[in-house]
Amino acid sequence: MTAPTPVAIFEELRFVWELMAAEYLFLLPFARRKSQWLRRTLAGVVLFSVLSQFYFPWQGFCQGVLPVPMADLFTGLWYVPLALATMLYSRVCFQITACDALYIGISGYAAQHLVYVTVHELLALDWYPQLTACLPLYALVSLAACGLLYGLLYRVMARPLSLCGGELNQDTTAHILHYVLLLAVLIFCTLSCQHLFHFDPAIRILSAQLGFLICAMILGIQYLSCRNILAQREQAVIHQMLRDGERHYTHSKELIEMVNRSVHDLKHTCQALRTMDEGERLAFVSELEQNVAMYRRLVHADNEAVNTILVEKTLSCEKEGIRLACSLGHLELDFLSLPDLYTLLGNAIDNAVEGVRNLPDPEKRVVQLSIQTSGGFVSIQTNNYYAGELTLENGLPRTTKRDPAGHGYGLKSIRYLARKYGGSMSVSARDGVFVLQIMLPVQS
Amino acid sequence: MRIALVDDNPQDAQVLQEYLDRFSREVGLEWSYAYYSDGQAFLDGDTCQFDLIVMDVDMPGINGIETARLLRQRDPDVLLMFVTNMPQYALAGYAVDALDYLIKPVAYGDFTLKLQKTLRYLRRDRTEWITLHTTGGMVRLEPREILYVESTLHYLTYHTWSGEYRVRGAMAEAERTLQGYSFARCSRSYLVNLRHVRAIEGEDVVVETVRLKMTRSRREEFLERFTRFLGGMEP
After folding, report:
1. For residue A371, what is the enclosing H or E element?
2. Is A335 part of the contact surface with chain B (CB cutoff 8 Å)?
3. Burial status of residue B48 (CB atoms within 10 A of its CB: 0-12, 13-18, 19 or more)
4. Alpha-carbon span A378 to A337, nearest angstrom
5. For residues A207 and A214, what is the distance between their CA atoms, to the nearest angstrom?
6. Nearest by CB to A329, which of B94, B109, B117?
7. Is the pLDDT of residue A278 over 90?
8. Are strands B32-36 and B2-6 parallel, antiparallel or unpaired?
């Protein structure tokens, strides 16, 4: 077996370098980096550079052992496991789901193939074959093409990817199947086009065009898929807020009806007071004073909006036999818009109520809400008992309901709103107690 | 766990004691408690021995808030919970750094939920001594005294209330030493004691009087760690 030429060595190296660079152009704005990711990346580059050279023994083996048509096919198949290995390696450096690793892999492979078709097929083999004779120039041209194309792709894709919050798709069977199939189609088509290119010089332009178009189409699909998912998420949050608004209206209506009835009763009370004797009157007034005291206990925050929400929630909880206990300190919530404040508090309370609703022990059917401002932060905390298993996934409880798409958005909207105001939220479920903590920096 | 019950009404305190007994049977926790019928008697005793003070707000003589204010002068850290009839009066309780308040009549479920909250914060605030091998010799201190740790080249600088200590080493070692004591990285060179975070202003975190920058890549995790600290949750 003759030693490979420098150009041949370069051809193998540039494949892994171009592929990894393409994957990273998508990974960097998108994925959460693990600790020491840079070192791991560099180790990966070294690893795959070394692995790429094993092409030559493999080629030698195939050419020597297999009959001619099969030999070429099997030699070409070398790149498939190598590419898959780089996609797998992204999981070592970044915290991403398997589906997203495939998504990035597909996008990276398609991007790299575009460079391959333009520089290494059309340019190097067809239009300007003398290029390969001068290695430094060849390397420079490859670098320039990568820089140009990847730069363009980055400008288009970086922003939507960065808005995904580190995750595009969860690892469900359907999603994995979808991406595996897409990857298989991509690899099959590109390998076929490559094969056609080498097979018959007459149809070179055609096969290059085909390869190019397939990759461009796949990249387009990936881009649209990302935008779609982002749009869906935003819609879901808006949906949740609309539902909250609807409930607000219903409760307000009920409250107004309650007030109407009280006014009506007041009329009869006045009539009764006129006809009572002194003793009865005093007893009646004491009873009224007690009711007033009870009402005052409900409405005691120094913030109108908070009072409204809390009174409403307290009354609706009472209907279900649940106690809502509020500990309120100094409130500085004016920087929150009214709908956002309502959604935040409403969802926090609803989530806790959900947890205690079906508890058998009446003493445990209590939800504690505490809001206080300490220094530069507003701290909102709910505490409630819960029953059964509660596993946390990505910082939120995994929904046990059968329709995961429609639920769990209460806590997700809280997280979205907390982040919107520059704060954060976190939950913990331990010793049968569920705690939700929201932290918002006070804005002047 | 040692609890002080300060209430001018012995029956109310009796109810709480019964709840505590019941809860300790259910959960298997040991408490000891002392009862004081007025604020002055409590202040005259040994207040340092207690982990939690449950104080009635409305008492003749010195009321609960005033007692708490005087208590805070000598013990800024002990956990404080108020009991009151009217929630409006408890508002002032937050000014003396109260953990929470209870409204009379106190229900068992309410009380135990707040007790568990207390236990969480006690666990979070537990204190131990650590030793630093500084360039000026060995130094023993409590993690709560450290405001933040700065890493430069081969040295770590521990910024504390009582001065700065230089220790040879890298940030990874500081993280290991201070693991479990509510510290978090806001950037590559700064490890911040979450207890001393006073404000978050845009990209900056204010640690007592020092303003440090949060890098974009660490901001989200830092804020989440801080939120968990605020909630008394496990880091």
Report:
1. strand A366-374
2. no
3. exposed
4. 15
5. 11
6. B94
7. no
8. parallel
Name the band, by pLDDT with cuts 50, 70 and 90, for residue A73: confident
Q: Is the pTM of this model over 0.80?
A: no
Residue of B nearest to A323 (CA): B110
A107 neighbors A222 (Cβ within 8 angstroms): yes
Cα–Cα distance measured from residue A329 to residue A322, given in angstroms and rounded to the nearest whole number:
23
Contact call for residues B64 and B12 (beta carbons, < 8 A): no
Q: A434 vs A49, A196, A372, A387, CA distance in Å?
A: 50, 62, 19, 10
CA contacts within 13 A on the Cβ side of A226: 24
User: Which position has the higher pLDDT, A258 or B179?
Assistant: B179
- Per-residue confidence (pLDDT) for residue A136, from 0 to 100: 87
In contact, B160 and B202? CB cutoff 8 Å: no
Alpha carbon distance A135, A141 (integer Å): 10
Let me know: does A22 contact A105? Beta carbons within 8 Å.
no
Residue A443 structure tokens: 């804005």
Strand-strand pairing, A396-397 and A392-393: antiparallel
- Taking a C-beta distance cutoff of 8 angstroms, is the pair B2, B32 a contact? yes
* Lookup: tokens for A336: 């929150």
Mutate to test the interface with B, among A439, A440, A444 (most CBs of B within 10 A): A439
User: Angle at CA B21, nearest 5°, toward B18 and B25?
Assistant: 140
Task: Please give the sequence-ordered ranges of beta strands (E in DSSP) within chain B, or none if there are none.
Answer: 2-6, 32-36, 52-56, 79-84, 100-103, 130-134, 137-141, 146-152, 155-160, 163-168, 183-185, 190-193, 197-201, 204-207, 210-213
**What's B145's DSSP letter?**
G
Tokens encoding B52 = 């939690």
The distance in angstroms from the start CA to the end CA of chain B is 23
| Residue B215, amino acid | T
> What residues contact residue A164 under an 8 Å CB cut-off, 6+ apart?
A30, A226, A229, A230
Confidence at A407, pLDDT banded by 50, 70, 90: very low
Question: CA torsion, points B47, B51, B54, B55, in degrees to nearest 10?
Answer: 30
B229 touches chain A (CB under 8 A): no
End-to-end CA distance of chain A: 75
The CA dihedral of A128, A130, A132, A137, to the nearest 10 degrees, is -90
Task: Of A166, A156, A160, give the one whose Cα is nearest residue A101.
Answer: A166
CB-nearest to A424 from B116, B224, B234 is B224
What tokens appear for A50 in the block?
């070394």
CB B180, CB B126: distance < 8 Å: no
B227 touches chain A (CB under 8 A): yes
CB distance B58 to B64 below 8 Å: yes
| Calpha distance B175→B149 (Å, rounded) | 9
Cβ(A408)–Cβ(A395) below 8 Å: no
The verdict on a CB contact (< 8 Å) between B109 and A374 is: no
Instruction: For strands B204-207 and B210-213, give the pairing.
Output: antiparallel
Q: What is the ipTM of this complex?
A: 0.90
